[in-house]
């Protein structure tokens, strides 16, 4: 690239003008294009190829760079290097997105907001791929595409469709906890600066001796949680569909850097087995009273992207990106995500997506048994052996991370024997599944007017459902959380329909 910014062709050749075309002109001012006008051809051909596949979920996003700072001694929890010293700073990239709507949609839409965060640690990249909600709609991974389609556009009308949305959730009622969060004020956050983020899944902090703790991560905004009402969110969606992008960009430009405190809940494996809640069920939280939050760090965003496409659109996050000291649990949805996210990135960006500057580790990378492929743009490991166990040029390894890193869990998988043998599995609803949603309904009730707003938000959507039978089933679903909630959703929906 030319440092002094004189125009060249993409091949670096100096060029006289970027706004001329080579034509066979006629006297009336028309002209026939010539094949030899390679600049015109290249310019048009490149334009037609500017788009890469839009993410099927999480397309609309806001992003920025910043840093994670370790704020507490975590040596009793993990050997992860980024947490090894109080005050240690690690660069990060954060990308926050809505889930269902397309890249051009309003970022204030009522939706879960995804939180993709890459920590470029000195032991490689660790991605935290979280949400602004502590629970999720499903706990059986095979339902993921169905759940998302039901939140998107109808296959015939190409319209968002309340009938299929509620039909999905009545048929898959384990999402009731997440539905309550979604239709509460937290379903329409005021901007990225004012939302919290949660791992949802259980993860593990691991130690060099092979021991581990189960953890859940909570990232809490220092700006305070602030939300839009339904009316405000709808109005802003019309006036400024990019409201959240603008809010973040402008805050960082004026040096009003947003920050978050990072906490973990910590559970010993011995506590997991007999705990009331299945810790691998992501429709459940660990109540604070049972597992209090422990501070581990602080996150600050302080740099806007230099180029949106290069830094944010080309960013690829995956829960499978883990460093020594951090590992996945046996949550089936997490297990499926470990495969699905890198698979999506290979499709969307190409097989060498890890080399793109925004995804590239800042730690040294030496992975000579992954070679070639489209768009390889490092040295491709020169003449080093491209096969394992070479005696001509032996590869050196890090034996000390055996039993610590995700891919060599030889020691600490032992505990998970109690999870059981290989089996087919679909979760079924139990009465207990309504206990935590009921607790949330109480939490919502602590703030004056919040229950009423939540009910109206639900009713505003349910009133679009055509089938009275399906509407009744929705009332019943909320009625299983609290009879009063079910009755009030019904009453409010019917009042909206009559209007
Ligand atoms: P607590 O009273 O200790 O915690 C309640 C938490 O609810 C608050 O700390 C706050 O989380 C969160 N909250 C407040 N309003 C909303 C909302 N509209 N949507 C989602 N979360 C909200 O109770 P418990 O820990 O016993 O949990 C009770 C219920 O609170 C749970 O069933 C769950 O629905 C919800 N909750 C619990 C969390 C947990 O990890 N224990 C995390 C978040 C929600 P925060 O402080 O993170 O903002």
From TrEMBL:
UniProt GO molecular function: catalase activity; heme binding; metal ion binding
Positions annotated to bind heme: 341
Keyword list, A-Z: Heme, Hydrogen peroxide, Iron, Metal-binding, Oxidoreductase, Peroxidase
Cofactor entry: heme
Residues at the catalytic site: 58, 131
Coiled coil feature spans: none
A Pfam family per the record: Catalase-rel
Family: Belongs to the catalase family.
Biological function: Catalyzes the degradation of hydrogen peroxide (H(2)O(2)) generated by peroxisomal oxidases to water and oxygen, thereby protecting cells from the toxic effects of hydrogen peroxide.
Official protein name in the record: Catalase mono-functional heme-containing
Species of the source: Penicillium cosmopolitanum
